[in-house]
Amino acid sequence: MKKITYLIAVVLAGFISSCNPVDDIFDELEANEAAVIGTTDYTISDDDYETLDLGFGNFSNVDDAKAMIPTILNDAFPFWGEGSTANVTYKLFARASTESNLIVYEVTTEDYDANPDTERFDNFDDNDQIIELLNTKYPSPDSRTLVSLTYDFFDGSTNTLNNGFFFNNGEWNFIQGLTDDEYNLVGEGFPNFSSEDEAEAKLPVFLKDKFKFNPKAAGDIVPFMFKLFQTDEDDVDEDGSTDDRTTYSFVKNFIFDGTDFTAYSNVLEQTLQFGYDGTTWVPDNTIAYTFTGADFTLISTQLADKYPGPADSAGNFSNFDRRNGNDNFWSDDMLLEATVLVLNNLDSAAEEGQKYVVAFDIFNGAGGVETLAVIKTGGDWVLQ
Length: 384
Known about the structure:
Layout: H1 2-17, H2 21-34, E1 39-43, H3 46-51, H4 62-76, E2 85-93, E3 101-106, H5 109-113, H6 127-137, E4 145-154, E5 158-168, E6 171-175, H7 180-185, H8 196-210, E7 221-231, E8 245-256, E9 261-263, E10 267-276, E11 281-283, E12 287-290, H9 293-302, H10 308-317, E13 320-321, H11 332-346, E14 355-363, E15 367-377, E16 380-383
Parallel strand pairs: 1-2, 3-4, 12-14, 13-14
Antiparallel strand pairs: 2-10, 4-5, 5-6, 7-8, 8-9, 10-11, 14-15, 15-16
């Protein structure tokens, strides 16, 4: 212990005899820490939203997210340096519209007879015929009007259906509803649910089964119409009474996560990548990609005539020979040419400004890995 104390004293004495030694040491430490290059997956937390004064716990648009997330990353990673990346998950408000007013209508014989295409059999066999009827009956509907329509439709046989037609953004949109048999299938004695909570509990199970042969992609939002039996406060049945009971129709949106459906809350989870440019964090679309054996086969095949030795070597060993002077040597320009070939095959529709950092195996007397950073500019891949 005495030796340690003495050593500390000597070191302190040296500090005192030099010019601002402590400041110099801390400056050096900060410089070293600033040089740290990190990569992380980061999820914006409830506390982060509060820090940004976002009381609803989400961003209202992508531009706000791009502008505000750097504040959080600067605080979270103060010593990370240029070249660091962060893949950030955040919540984005994305409203999926539902009805603001409801019309309940059952198509009549007169309606069918008014259209030469439907008068003979008194049914529809094409959704365009339904849209034509709606445009005739409701030429100037309010935005977000839902028509709960009961009609006969021929598709191999004639069935009576009840589906929704939702007027939004100037056009009618079809909204799938349940048939009477499907209400029975989910355990209902009548063609309606007894409560919204019951609908939210049962419809995700029903939708998963309904789309099992026509699967949705993760992130797909499916609007669905369901019916509740409740007090007719709006007199939707037009009988002049607002204290009787009748059937209302509602639109509910459900989102598919790749496995299950859940009720959609108007908030999406989105991901943005940011890169640290030496001063602050900026949105960055860089994709990291590692060459596969198939990529080396492609390079070997496509460049065999131009670079026979190097191409044959790359195909045989799934690496690039970087031994300068060797017959199979790959120069920097050749590596860029090979990278362009792979990326045009991998991502031919890449947008202007898309960035890639590609990694590939090399041999320089021993195995190793090198990287190359490129960006789509003027329709071509060029070095960053």
